[in-house]
Amino acid sequence: ARTAPPADLRDRIVAELDRTRRRSALLTEVVDDADLMRQHSPIMSPLVWDLAHVGNQEELWLVRDVGRREPVRRDIDDLYDAFKQPRRDRPSLPLLRPDEARAYLGTVRTKVLDLLDTVRFDERRLVADGFAFGMIVQHEQQHDETMLATHQLRVGPPVLAAPPPPPSAGPVTGEVLVPAGPFTMGTSTDPWALDNERPAHRVDLPAYFIDAAPVTNADYLAFMAAGGYTEPRWWSEPGWHYRCAANLAAPMHWRRDGADWGYLRFGRFSPLVLDEPVVHVGYYEAEAYAAWAGKRLPTEAEWEKAARWDPASGRSRRYPWGDEDPTPEHANLGQRHLAPAPVGAYPAGASPLGVHQLVGDVWEWTSTGFHGYPGFAAFPYREYSEVFFGESYRVLRGGSFGTDRAACRGTFRNWDLPIRRQIFSGFRCARDPRPGEHDR
Ligand code: AVJ
Ligand code: FE
């Protein structure tokens, strides 16, 4: 006999699916059909591909697998398989047109809402605690952030608007000493945590310093003014090679404004806000800045200990501020603003040791390659994480202003190639204590 799911879990799933779909709708209704079908950059998909792809994943996982229903459109599976279709080929595929894609998403969603009333949340691991639904919510939110990055690459008059982020409540400078000792990294209990965040395991770290705030535009300008982009000694060998091949001289989307710099942001030009975290830098640039500053990037474990370890209890928490879900007071998430907030804008989101803005604003590059934790098991499919494991990718942590709270927590892991700059990526620095310094 089938039992209805617990009402509160069902309601939360419906609310999250609905909230997420409204974001996808917003991102795809502010431009016309021709714009949706166009490829705005060879490294991005046409927006209409992302849209139908999230519907296709929802069909594959929720309608067919969880619901064991008949396929809606088996004929389009290959078109929307990211592994079968390289990005540069996507605009020339016989894609669903925008109205067809919207109708397809609607049909799939109707079936999902229908099966939600009969699914047994205790029957299979895939559906325990609503995991499959949470995975699909996070998948769509991740594509929404990708679509936001496509909007940032799009040339033309602005179509997105949002209020500016809150001002700084006071300067945040310097470094924080994280004492030596073990902490719990990853999670075995967070119900919607993805496979690469699991399992929880102990990691023992020596003492280290980590910046209290992300590197700002002012900081980054100082690196540029000191010849950062022209001095190979600050760069790794592959980094310098890429810097030269791509002729890098500033973060992506920066534009000269007379003697100064500004940036082009979602179709609007503005002067740099100096105390905002720098965004649209690749790993190699972050690494070069850190070397110039006499520091290094944090490892992934150092980032997570700074974000989760509570010195009072010794426990790892979900977020720097505790276990409560993010509110607008804690962090700049969810595309509420179309920019990172200045350093000091979220004092309520700081960690107990005083590290600010770990969550939200900009994804932060770490020096760690993307690997499975000890005891990793691919779930529910190898193509989410496992096929990317290796040193080719670097892990990014913390989420950006374009990351939804459903796809962001102290354990959440993002990854990308070191050359990538179209994502909302920035960084902070870390360093080892100098002899005697950690005894202060
Ligand atoms: C985790 C952001 C690297 O966008 O490539 C989307 C997420 N996986 N569809 C990506 C993802 C499958 C992934 N990142
Ligand atoms: Fe995807």
From TrEMBL:
Residue ranges of every copy of the Sulfatase-modifying factor enzyme-like domain listed in the record: 172-431
Catalysed transformations (reactions): gamma-L-glutamyl-L-cysteine + hercynine + O2 = gamma-L-glutamyl-hercynylcysteine S-oxide + H2O
Entries under Pfam families matching the protein: DinB_2, FGE-sulfatase
Highest taxon of source: Bacteria
InterPro entries: CTDL_fold, DinB-like, DinB/YfiT-like, EgtB, EgtB_Actinobacteria, Sulfatase_Mod_Factor_Kinase, SUMF_dom, SUMF_sf
GO MF term list: gamma-glutamyl hercynylcysteine sulfoxide synthase activity; iron ion binding
Cofactor(s) essential for the protein: Fe(2+)
HAMAP family associated with the record: EgtB
NCBIfam families: egtB_TIGR03440 (TIGR03440)
Protein name: Hercynine oxygenase
Protein source organism: Micromonospora polyrhachis
